Amino acid sequence: MIREFPISKMFPLLEKDNLLPSIVFRSARRQCDQDLDFLARMKKGKLNTAGQEKILAALERAVKKHSLPDDVIRNHPQLSALLSTGVGAHHAGQLLPWRLLLEELMSQGELRLMLATGTVAAGVDFPARSVVITSHSRRDQEGFRAITASELQQMSGRAGRRGKDHVGFCLVAPSVFCDARVIQHVSHLPPEPLRSAYFAAPSTVLNLLKYRNVDDLKYTVERSLAAFIDEKHSVRLMEMADDEEEKVSSYQGDHKKKAERRVRRKRAEAESLKNRQSWLLDQTLRGLTDLGFVEGSTLSQKGIWAAELCTSLVLELAEAINLSLFTERPKEILIGLIASLAGDPHRNYLSIRKNPIPKGDFQKLSQIVERVRLSYQNPFAQEIKVQPDAAVTVITWLESESWLEFSSLLRLAGIAEGDVSRLVTQTADHLHQMTKLKEYFPALAEQAFECRLSLLKPPFTEPEV
Q1: Which residues of 405-440 are buried (b: 16+ CB within 10 A; e: fewer)?
Q2: What is the helix (H) or strand (E) element at residue 10, kind and residue range?
Q3: Which domain holds residue 315?
């Protein structure tokens, strides 16, 4: 099997066989950018003058239609490659305005090729005549795994444009990372069963306790879709254990002991699954009680105002507010402290300057995060970690005159614009939640409002869609 089927071979073949426009799904952002850069340097496959003028006109119409920030589009490092090749790279590392532009151009049929990550398939609707799958696996928090039937369906389902194509083509580009046999096997699997996204998170429980008591809450959880699905799976496991137990008597020696252990494990797993939603609720209530948000079966005074914070960081932010860590702090310090909590631990951020926030503040914030972690073991949350570099990044954006000035620093540091965009947006969202505390902490709520406005300067003002 060849190690890789390069874009330099893929693109000419797609063009020769009249399979454009096409979407090539890559497993990593970097691959998308590298492919685009390679195509831009190729002598063959460039658009002629008329083609470049056509796509430029379509670009200008899209910018006007969606009120996209002109300076961001005009100064984007991939603009030249887009205009010369009619190819775009669409992934989470790009700014939202640039992704919206590519989606509009693809929907209008102006792009010949879209290079995208597999996650794009589930969130964006831009069909093409053909799609090319270049990997049978994808990476998640636990490492690499084979793509699921639903993910394959989302990607392959982009092939074929209604009203333009009689048939769509889904191609597999062979390599050591893309085994057609795996793709074929996955294609015959049924879609994954429906799963409930509900879980008794602290924010959810605090909000519900404003209007209900703990007994009402338990009643609601026991009759949720999540509990129904868990019960269904529990019954299936118990039936499997019963079937296995009937066979145990026919086994001898070690085989019998192993079979008995399997039966016990299945029964224990079934029982655990049956009670999982109630256990999760109890886990959350214990944590909220330990941290002083709940007293008995009702909200404490701290719990009443903390319930206004509809955010995944409700416990960390509420504890920091309760300890006056955010009280009467300069704008950049408040923004930086929130940003240090909002960042993703696995992302890289700017570290090009001295951090204006005292180390002692980060230490206090880290102690709060650790106390919350010890009191409430969240089985679903990603790791929360105080990141001083995230604070530097958002403060640098706050002090920058324009995105053009700021993005040049990001490129020098090798940091994806999309990651920073996500960080700034999340920081602004958490500040927005703090504005809801006007009745309890009026000065802090007012400052949070002003800080949010300072962060949401172009291109973070929402485009018209």
Answers
A1: ebbebbeeeebbbbbbbbbbebbbbbbbbbbbbeee
A2: helix 7-16
A3: 311-455
Count: domains in the chain: 3
Buried b (16+ CB within 10 A) or exposed e, 277-292: beebbeebbebbbebb
Q: Are residues 41 and 158 in the same domain?
A: yes
Of 156, 187, 218, which residue sits at a domain end? 187
Q: Please name which of 322, 323, 364, 375 lies closest in space to residue 340, comparing C-alpha atoms.
A: 364
Beta bridge partners of 145: 138
pLDDT digits (tens, 9 = 90+) for 403-455: 999 999 999 999 999 999 999 999 999 999 999 999 999 999 999 999 999 99
The CATH number for 323's domain is: 1.10.3380.30
CA distances from 100 to 124, 337, 386, 462 (A): 10, 31, 32, 12
Boundary-marking domain end, from 187, 212, 247: 187
**pLDDT tens, position by position, 344-356:** 988 999 998 899 9
Question: Phi and psi (nearest 5°) for 171?
Answer: -110, 150
What pTM was estimated for this model as a whole? Answer: 0.83
